[in-house]
Recover the amino acids of this structure.
């Protein structure tokens, strides 16, 4: 097959495998725009029409199985006499490759065993047997799910014809046109003897796979193929516990029954194996159930719209469902920030389960065209990988709120939860007068969540357009307040341009819904960083938290904009810890946690937190920025400058990062480079806002204290947001004993 050529509607990309009966290529389906594994008969077997007919018949049998743990068969057919099968292309590694490193961890092995049994049971229920179950034919996907591969030897048990002349017995093994039916080391005794195989042969092969997975060894493997076959046929089966002492006796008994020499003594099919394994998992103390099933993560919905321009709506729908489900008593919902880190097609569900501590996941897709929308959702158990519920909604876009309610209700029912007890602080004014306001609002939230200066400005535009459609739409008012105050906190615009606007929008939202947590949080932040009214700020941060204890941003902003600037480190640590519990994968929360430690002068702890953030995203510029400062305080100058240089690049030369880099160069004794960076910011400040506090840092590094105080005075007049760190930030240690410094702290209420 010519690489780069086209076969039917498949473009051949590369060869990925070869066996006795055929070759497999990675190909691209040019019609459906997806990658497939394209399997062809080898030239020797292709010449025989009877073999080709059976090859295609077996593929059609396998195609009848639609199960998440079995590799899908998309298409079978012939083109110019060449038979082919188009299969699902599975990325990951084979179980054999994983077992090269030794036995699997117990819980992983048990999950793999149950998923294999689930898949093979689905085949057995349709009268199909696999006949070649082995670690090489079991893929562990990147998502952590099992895929049973290669039903090329699959055989129908129902209406099966008698063995014909093309099946012979060679050294006791059934062959098809000279090819072994099965793999000797994983065959059942009856297969080796050339007897007719049924579902119990698959049970034996599964038992060998399970034994290997739990113990790391094959119980019958010998130096030669013939000796291995002899051991399978005649030697007694060793107890799994003799190779894996920590495996519970009940599980060992299940696998021993699977490996009985006499087929009549084994489980009749994989269905009974599956049932016993599930019963064991549910009852055994060895298989610890870590979480309640009443936990769910809602992943970003996939945009299947014709123009792929609805990501804002996909994200908004998922976010609205998170908010709705958070109001169901007894259900814990993973936060938006943490759930949305698992965006894309190759989500590792094991990582989702471990990182987010959830047992179920809601996946979905959206196809929007004109005023019609199709929403497809699927609730999946992470324990089994099997869907608990799925539904498709074909509605007018105006019905989107009803769709959201129905999805939330269905999830609650499937998880056996009551929806009678809710406490939705967003309910008043949360539904707009017209659907266009809602659509503009979703676009505003989409850009707000990106948290860059440019996108925050875009979010303001969309929130304002939503309010033009419906002036009383409280979520849009709160979103506007959050966007304005965040621009102020980032130092992107002069405080006087954004902070009063943030206060006005927050107060308008609170006039309609006095307990709206987003509006309270934005108002409290404004009162802290702009008004320096610490008591009012604390009161409103607490109101936001009381209104929605699961609102991580309120805990985070309370810590970083109120408690820590006032030197209340223990309370700040408790608040940020709560935010971390709610948002375990939030880069911003991890960076804030490190900042608490940094201000306490616990630089090693701060470095540890920043490294956690960088493990999640090596390109998170703010983590590099803070890490550089921690290194600087530990006198690791070269490391500090390297991190700060990286932060400058990753943040597109953010003035804050440039200023800290200038300070670091000054501390390192490179005065000329520090002065260059001062000049750069002075030039940039001509046409954009640069906080005077940042100029003060560089002047402190250059030991020019008078100019530093002049800049701090200018910052006071402008009410610069970063002035609140005066009391606790190590960069100010050089002037802390100066009476002018003490006077300024008092003016700030610090």
């Amino acid at each position: 097959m010519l690489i780069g050529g086209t076969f039917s509607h498949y473009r051949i990309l590369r060869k990925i495998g070869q066996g006795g009966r055929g070759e497999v290529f990675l190909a691209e389906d040019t019609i459906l725009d997806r990658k497939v594994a394209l399997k062809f008969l080898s030239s020797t077997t292709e010449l025989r029409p009877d073999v080709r007919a059976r090859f295609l018949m077996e593929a059609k049998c396998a195609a009848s199985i639609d199960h998440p743990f079995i590799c899908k068969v998309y298409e079978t057919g012939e083109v110019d006499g060449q038979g082919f099968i188009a299969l699902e292309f599975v990325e990951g590694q084979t179980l054999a490759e994983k077992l090269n490193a030794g036995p699997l961890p117990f819980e992983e092995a048990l999950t793999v065993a149950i998923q294999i049994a689930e898949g093979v049971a689905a085949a057995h229920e349709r009268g199909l047997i696999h006949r070649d179950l082995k670690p090489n034919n079991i893929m562990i996907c990147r998502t952590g799910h099992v895929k049973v591969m290669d039903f090329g030897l699959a055989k129908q048990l129902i209406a099966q014809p008698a063995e014909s002349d093309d099946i012979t017995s060679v050294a006791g093994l059934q062959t098809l046109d000279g090819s072994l039916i099965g793999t000797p080391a994983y065959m059942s005794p009856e297969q080796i003897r050339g007897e007719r195989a049924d579902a119990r042969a698959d049970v034996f092969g599964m038992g060998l796979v399970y034994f290997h997975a739990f113990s790391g060894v094959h119980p019958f493997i010998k130096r030669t193929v013939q000796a291995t076959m002899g051991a399978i046929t005649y030697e007694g089966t060793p107890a799994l516990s003799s190779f894996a002492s920590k495996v519970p006796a009940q599980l060992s008994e299940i696998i021993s029954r699977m490996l009985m020499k006499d087929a009549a003594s084994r489980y009749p099919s994989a269905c009974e194996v599956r049932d016993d394994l599930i019963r064991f998992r549910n009852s055994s103390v060895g298989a610890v159930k870590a979480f309640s099933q009443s936990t769910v993560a809602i992943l970003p919905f996939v945009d299947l719209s014709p123009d792929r321009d609805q990501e804002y709506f996909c994200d908004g729908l998922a976010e609205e469902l998170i908010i709705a489900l958070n109001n169901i008593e007894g259900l814990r919902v993973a936060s938006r920030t943490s759930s949305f880190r698992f965006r894309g097609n190759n989500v590792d569900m094991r990582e989702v389960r471990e990182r987010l501590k959830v047992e179920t996941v809601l996946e979905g897709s959206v196809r929007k065209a004109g005023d019609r929308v199709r929403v497809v959702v699927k609730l999946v158990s992470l324990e089994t990988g099997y869907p608990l519920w799925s539904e498709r909604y074909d509605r007018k876009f105006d019905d989107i709120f009803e769709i959201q309610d129905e999805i939330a209700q269905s999830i609650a029912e499937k998880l056996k939860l009551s929806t009678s007890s809710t406490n939705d602080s967003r309910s008043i004014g949360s539904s707009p007068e017209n659907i266009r306001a809602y659509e503009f609002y979703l676009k505003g939230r989409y850009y707000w969540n990106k948290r860059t200066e440019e996108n925050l400005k875009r979010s303001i535009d969309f929130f304002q357009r939503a309010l033009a459609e419906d002036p009383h739409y409280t979520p849009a008012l709160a979103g506007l307040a959050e966007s304005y105050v965040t621009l102020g906190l980032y130092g992107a615009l002069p405080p006087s341009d954004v902070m009063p606007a943030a206060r006005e929008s927050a107060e308008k939202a609170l006039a309609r819904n006095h307990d709206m947590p987003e509006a309270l949080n934005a108002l409290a932040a404004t009162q802290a960083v702009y008004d320096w009214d610490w008591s009012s700020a604390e009161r409103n941060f607490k109101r936001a938290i009381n209104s929605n204890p699961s609102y991580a941003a309120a805990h985070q902003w309370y810590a970083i904009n109120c408690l820590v600037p006032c030197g209340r480190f223990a309370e700040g640590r408790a608040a940020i810890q709560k935010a971390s519990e709610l948002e375990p994968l939030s880069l911003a929360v991890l960076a804030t946690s490190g900042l608490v430690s940094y201000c306490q002068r616990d630089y090693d702890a701060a470095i540890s937190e920043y490294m956690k953030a960088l493990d999640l995203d090596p390109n998170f510029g703010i983590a590099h920025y803070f890490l550089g400062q921690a290194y600087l305080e530990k006198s690791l100058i070269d490391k500090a400058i390297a991190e700060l240089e990286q932060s400058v690049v990753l943040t597109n030369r953010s003035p804050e990062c440039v200023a800290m880099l200038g300070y670091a160069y000054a501390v390192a004794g490179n005065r000329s480079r520090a002065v260059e960076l001062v000049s750069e910011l002075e030039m940039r400040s001509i046409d954009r806002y640069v906080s005077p506090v940042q100029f003060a840092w560089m002047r402190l590094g250059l030991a020019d204290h008078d100019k530093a105080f002049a800049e701090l005075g200018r910052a006071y007049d402008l009410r610069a947001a970063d002035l609140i760190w005066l009391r606790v930030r190590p960069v100010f240690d050089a002037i802390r004993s100066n009476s002018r410094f003490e006077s300024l702290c008092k003016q700030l209420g610090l």
Summary: The longest helix spans residues 106-125. The two ends are 75 Å apart (CA to CA). The chain has 30 helices and 20 strands.
